[in-house]
Amino acid sequence: MTTAVVVGNPKPGSRTLGAATYLAAELSGSEPDLIVDLATLGSTILDWSDEHVNDLVTQVGQADLVVFASPTYKAAYTGLLKLFLDRFAGGTGLSGIAIPLMLGGSPAHSLAPELTLRPVLTEIGGT
What is the pTM of this model? Predict the structure, then answer.
């Protein structure tokens, strides 16, 4: 089983990254095979011809289990994660299980993963 983690927190090495890595390890029984901390990609995430980002999209799309994590910003996931997820449009989708994980500042944020992130992950092929 190939496991990946994609984190959309704009702060590199964030608590969101720690939570997502922990969840992926607990679900799969081992450390993730691929960790994508989007904050470390800089402006390359905006360049659709960037080979490194395109390779990450391919690897994430082929993973059996992917944890997509973000802090809750304005009752939704971050724009940084949105930029990465937009790469999956046009037939390049997910082929495995997609787990939405969002960290919130209060119980008022508890519906954000279900209402904002899960529908997008389902739309791009995640189970």
Answer: 0.94
